[in-house]
C-alpha cells in the first residue's frame, strides 16, 4: 500500500518549532524580545528616517517643550487648537523624566509597539483560539508598517496601542456583558480620540449598526454602548472646555478638518494632495484668517466643491475608496513628494496584499463571534467612509491593521485546516 506523502506542515522541523512555542509563557517572552529587538534595531540603524523637522513632528515637539517650560499648550507663542493634546502631553512627560532626544523618543515608541504585540495576542485569544492568536501576534510583530512607524514622531504608534486596548476592553465587555468593561472601553476611547480625533463619531456608528443587525439589537447591549459613549464624552469635556475658553468656539478635540476636506473634494486635482499646488490653493482661501476662520472657510469651500458637480464628486468618492484600500507608500514617508523606491514599494505591496487576501478568507470562515465581528466591520466601514470623504492616505489605514491581521490569521488557519482535510 502506497504511503501518504508528508506535507511541509507535518515535517519534523515544523513540529519541533510548534512544540517549542506550545508553552505560552515561552512564546510570549520570545515574541516580546523579537519585537523589541527588531524595532529598536530599526530605530538605531535607520536613524535618518522620520524627519523631526517635518511639520507634524515639529508641532508636537514644540508644544511638548512649551508644556514642560510652563508656557502652556502653545505653538509659536500662541495657544494651539490645531493639534490633539494626548501625544504632545506624552512627549512632555518623556521630557520630564529626561528623555528629550529624538532617538530616545523613538526607543520609547519601540517599547510601546512591542507591548502592543503582546496586548494584541490577548485580544485575539479572547475571540478565537490560542493557535490563531499566536499566528496573528507573529504577523503583528513582523509587519513592516508597524515596525517602521516607531521611527516617526507621529501619533500612530501610541494611537494603535490605544486602539488595540480599546478593542481588547470592548471585546471583554461584549463577551462578559459586564457594565464595568463598557465603562473602561469608553474611557480608553476618549483618550484615543484625544490622541487622534478620527474615532470621534465611532460610537454613533456602533449604535447604528447595533440597530441594523440582529446581533446587536438587544436592549442590554444598546444600553451599554450608550453608557460607553457617555463615558467617552465625559473624558473629552475638559479639553472641549479648554478650547471654548481659549477660542470661544465648540471644538471637542482639534480643528483642521477643513484642509483635508477641501483637498479631498477639489475636483481639478482629483481629490489628491499635490503639495505646492494644493498649498497654493489653501493659502488663497485662508489668507488673513485665524485658524478657526480658515477651518470654517475651507469647510464651506469643500461643500461648494461638491455642490458644483455632485455627480463627479460621487464618482470621486468611489475612486477614493479604491485608493484607500489599494495604495501603499512608494517610499519611506518624508512629508515631500516621493519617487518610487522599488524595494520598499515591493515589500509594502506584498505585505498589504497578503494581509487583505487572508483577511477576506478570515471573514469567509466565520470563526469570530458575530457581535465582535460587527464591531470590527463597523470600524472598517467607518474608517473607509471618513477617508473616502477626506484623504485616503495609506498612513490613515494603519489603525485598521490590528483588525486586518486578526482576520488574516483566521483566514490562514482556515485555509490550512481545509488543506489538511483534503489530504487526509
Characteristic terms for this protein:
single chain; 424 residues; mainly alpha; two-stranded antiparallel sheet; 18 helices; 2 strands
A few lines on this structure:
With 424 residues, this protein is an all-alpha fold.
Give structural notes.
With 424 residues, the chain is mainly alpha-helical. The protein has a domain at 162-254. The protein has 18 helices and two strands. The protein has a two-stranded antiparallel sheet with strand order 1-2. Strand 1 (74-75) and strand 2 (78-79) form a beta hairpin. Helix 3 packs across helix 4, helix 5 runs parallel beside helix 8 (156-176) and helix 15 packs across helix 17. The chain is globular, with a radius of gyration of 23 Å. The mean pLDDT is 90.
Provide the low-confidence segments as ranges: none
Q: Give the overall average pLDDT.
A: 90
As a percent range, the share of strand residues is under 5%
The assigned structural class equals: mainly alpha
- Would you list the SSEs in sequence order as H and E? HHHEEHHHHHHHHHHHHHHH
Sheet with the most strands: spatial strand order:
1-2
Helical residues, percent? over 70%
Specify Rg, calculated over alpha carbons: 23 Å
Roughly how many Å apart are the termini?
15 Å
Taking the sheet with the most strands, its summary is:
2 strands, antiparallel
- Helical stretch count? 18
